[in-house]
Amino acid sequence: MSPSKSICPDCGNNPVNHTMEFIDETLSVFMQPLFDLLKPLRTKHVDQLIDYILLPFPWGFRKLGLLKYHDEIEKAPTDRTKVIWNEAKKRGIEMQGITFLGKPLEHHRAKIKGKWESFESLPIPPYLNIDSYMWMDDKAQLKTFFNKNTIPTPSGKNATTQREALNIFKRGTAPFIVKPQAGSRGRHTTTHIYTEDEMITAFKSAKKLCHFVIVEEQLMGSIYRATYINGKVVGVVRGDPPRIIGDGKHMVKELIVLKNMSKHKKVNDVLINQNLQYFLKRQQVTLQSILEKGRILDLSEKIGISYGGFAAEEFPKTHPKIIQKIKEAGDLLNAPIIGFDVIIEDITADPKSQRWGIIEANSLPFIDLHHFPLEGKSINVASLVWDLWS
């Protein structure tokens, strides 16, 4: 079974327009030095002036019928916004979404203390410090920041040419991971890179979404999404790619069929397609291979139940030293809401006993992951977001 040809396999279940994404993400990296230079000039009064200058545009779009407000939660484009909206309703907070040319946007507004406050998906009080949001989504700049402050992070560098990527490959130790320097949801990210040819293919894929590309060592283990709010780590969701375990008898393709037959009803099937076969090839495995008993084999670089993977809230069992290090990272970034992506083999064990690291920090994390885990107790993170306004 193969996905629709109109869907980019490297984007996965969250496709974007490559050209628009390339322009947006490349400019965000390219303009960062200018933003850094202008930072000292930014004050509360300057922000108010900018808001005043931009104020006529939404008004004009509304008059022309291009922009409209709505109060239909079903139109919210992400579950992240829906959990915020549902919590707002519980608290008696009026909230509205925005459509532009009939398309729902991630931009919303809520009436708080008699005043409409506009926000992108997550409502953050305007008086809180958000300076690090200007750069934390830049994976290269974040890596430099973490290294400077002794926060565990995988070694790696950014590259803009194929030659630079290959030089990083030759000087490091496989496996590698390659991804756009800016962007989210694992789009055009390639893992398990062992050869120069694989590096070239991965670099070309990442380059489709951003001129700047990250090449770094691949840490082993599950990916954990840790959410930091108002100085505290409030949730840690485990996300796994689809995996099978060898029994010494069945071929890989047979194990995939058995996995699909026994999966949880909320988990999607693992699709056998060209993308999966190339992923297996990088691990020197084919659909006809018989895995030795006990061998765990990943079937994709994408994680979560929508790819046939796994998701569980594991905050209660996370080792306190890991929580403390994530909190330290959040305190250093000094922002009200941050989503950290962490790779570690055993979340319950002392971090000093294993190789681990924070690979990304997200200024707009998908907090809904804590609300709907496949296993583990749900955490109402949306409530903690609204508590910022208390």
From TrEMBL:
Database matches in Gene3D superfamilies: ATP-grasp fold, A domain (3.30.1490.20)
Tagged with keyword Nucleotide-binding: yes
Domain ATP-grasp: 143-390
UniProt keyword terms in alphabetical order: ATP-binding, Nucleotide-binding
PROSITE patterns, per the entry: ATP_GRASP (PS50975)
Keyword Lipid biosynthesis: no
Single GO MF descriptor: ATP binding
Protein name: ATP-grasp domain-containing protein
Organism of origin: Candidatus Roizmanbacteria bacterium RIFCSPHIGHO2_01_FULL_39_24
Source species taxonomy: Bacteria, Candidatus Roizmaniibacteriota
